[in-house]
Amino acid sequence: MRQSLLALLARGPAHGYELKQDLEQLLGSAYPQPNVGQIYVTLGRLEKSGLIEGEDVEQSSRPNKKVYHLTDAGREALRAWFEETADEPRVRDEFFMKLALAPQTGLADRISLINRQRRQYLNTMRQLSKLTAAEDRDNRVAHLLIEGAMLHLQADLDWLERCQEELEELE
């Protein structure tokens, strides 16, 4: 959330609700909707760390609002974030840990675990397919997000199939 807010503020000053709306509009309904409370907590932390500054703006018919803008340090942090690669190997996968430990506990059957996880992935794919149909066709970013998620799920389904084949050979 930190870097996303910094990136949105790189365009220009905004308040928390504007940032929430910008994220929702950019990412569509496939991305978990940001909680405005979480946004304001994150903005407070970014301000304390000197990456953004907030300014109270008076409004005639409403309470004052706080508008945030990026500082030079925030712009540098954002540049550094864009330079980083996303390295998220899945060697700490919770499902795989369950699969590996199940025989030692005697509390779960590995094939049952695989089948349950497969059903979950298929249900998620169905939900994403429905979102694709409902999503605004002009929102290419949201469509790419959904497509990426579905490709990851397909890879996970293929991997589950491989796990099941290997484990059935062991038995």
Describe the fold and architecture.
By secondary structure, this protein is mainly α. The protein has helices at residues 2-9, 16-27, 36-48, 72-83, 94-105, 110-134, 140-170; strands at 52-57, 65-70. The protein has a two-stranded antiparallel ribbon with strand order 1-2. Helix 2 packs across helix 3 and helix 6 runs antiparallel to helix 7.
Summarize the structure.
This protein has about 170 residues and is mainly alpha-helical. Helix content is about 65%, strand content about 5%. Strand 1 and strand 2 (about 65-70) form a beta hairpin.
Beta strand %: 5-15%
Q: Largest sheet, if any? A: 2 strands, antiparallel
Number of strands: 2
Strand order of the largest sheet: 1-2
Whole-number radius of gyration? Answer: 22 Å
Give the ordered list of helices and strands: HHHEEHHHH
Output the keywords.
66% helix, 171 residues, mainly alpha, two-stranded antiparallel sheet, single chain
Helix-strand layout with pairing:
Blueprint: H1 2-9, H2 16-27, H3 36-48, E1 52-57, E2 65-70, H4 72-83, H5 94-105, H6 110-134, H7 140-170
Antiparallel strand pairs: 1-2
Helix pairs in contact: 2-3, 5-6, 6-7
